[in-house]
Every structure is written in structure tokens, then in C-alpha cells.
Write a structure and sequence with these properties.
By secondary structure, the protein is mainly alpha-helical. The protein is 55% helix and 10% strand. The protein is elongated, with a radius of gyration of 23 Å.
Length: 158
């Protein structure tokens, strides 16, 4: 009940019936295609006037209170984190290499970079650094051993 009041206050400047562009602004710049998918799946109830989707404000608030909204927002936050990481990728790689002057575990490296996603860590950092030889495994030929640590190596130039 408290959350509903918070959303009602935050949307008080919006009209009682919203269009897709209004939804984009209300949902923090969510893309039009995503919003149309949400409407098409029936996660937000709407009606059409001509070719325009009209969404009652109450339907938007109901959606914002749903688990689907929370999942979508988590995905958006992960995507924003990935974009921010890619912008600072070179800086973060250098920082990681300096951090790995002593053997470090994957968990330690992820905490150092403030990353929660192992998949993102592997794709952006660990795999490329292992391929170029800038990082080495302390236990050779056993990539998935629980005691595996990584240490800085000499870069191989091709």
C-alpha cells in the first residue's frame, strides 16, 4: 500500500491516461519497443484510439508494483552497468592487472571491480586477459578448480 502511494505521488504530474511517449518518460527512458512488448503481452492494460495505445495511470502503477517490473529494472541496471564498464574497460583492465601482482581468485577480482555478474566478468576481463597472456592461472590446465588463482603475466605481442 505504501509503495502505491509513492508511485502515485511520483506520477502526479502525468495525465490520468498516458500515451507510449508518456510511459517512456515515466519509466525512465525505457525504449518504445520494450514498452510496446509489455503492452502486447498484457502486462499493462491499455486501449487503442486509432493507432495510439492509451494506458490508464492506474494500470501503470499496477505494473510498477508487479514482479515483472522489478525483473525488467534489474535487467536494465545490468545493461547500464555493462555500458559503464565498457567505457572504462581499458582503465579497469589496467587496474585489475596491477591488482593481480599477487595471486587472486575470481571472487577477489570481481569484488575489486565491484561486479556481481560472473558472466560479464568472464566476457570482459578474464577470458581476454588469459588469451593475451596478461593473466596466467596458478594451477595449469585446470580452469574450473576451486582453488584456482590468477596472477599477472607478460603480455604476448603478435
Amino acid at each position: 500500500m505504501q509503495d502505491r502511494k509513492i508511485y502515485e505521488r511520483s506520477l502526479s504530474d502525468y495525465p490520468d491516461v498516458l500515451t507510449v511517449p508518456d510511459l517512456q518518460r515515466a519509466l525512465d527512458g525505457m525504449c518504445e519497443k520494450t514498452i510496446r512488448g509489455i503492452i502486447w503481452r498484457g502486462e499493462i492494460s491499455s486501449f487503442k484510439i486509432g493507432t495510439k495505445h492509451m494506458i490508464p495511470k492506474e494500470s501503470l502503477i499496477d505494473y510498477m508494483l508487479s514482479d515483472n517490473y522489478k525483473v525488467t529494472m534489474k535487467r536494465r541496471m545490468a545493461a547500464k552497468q555493462a555500458i559503464a564498464l565498457q567505457k572504462d574497460l581499458i582503465l579497469n583492465r589496467d587496474r585489475l592487472l596491477n591488482y593481480c601482482c599477487q595471486p587472486r581468485s575470481k571472487k577477489e577480482m570481481m569484488q575489486f571491480l565491484n561486479l556481481n555478474s560472473p558472466k560479464l566478468f568472464y566476457r570482459l576481463f578474464l577470458d581476454p586477459l588469459l588469451e593475451t597472456g596478461e593473466l596466467h592461472r596458478t594451477v595449469k590446465n585446470q580452469a574450473c578448480i576451486s582453488t584456482q588463482k590468477y596472477i599477472r603475466g607478460v603480455r604476448i605481442k603478435y
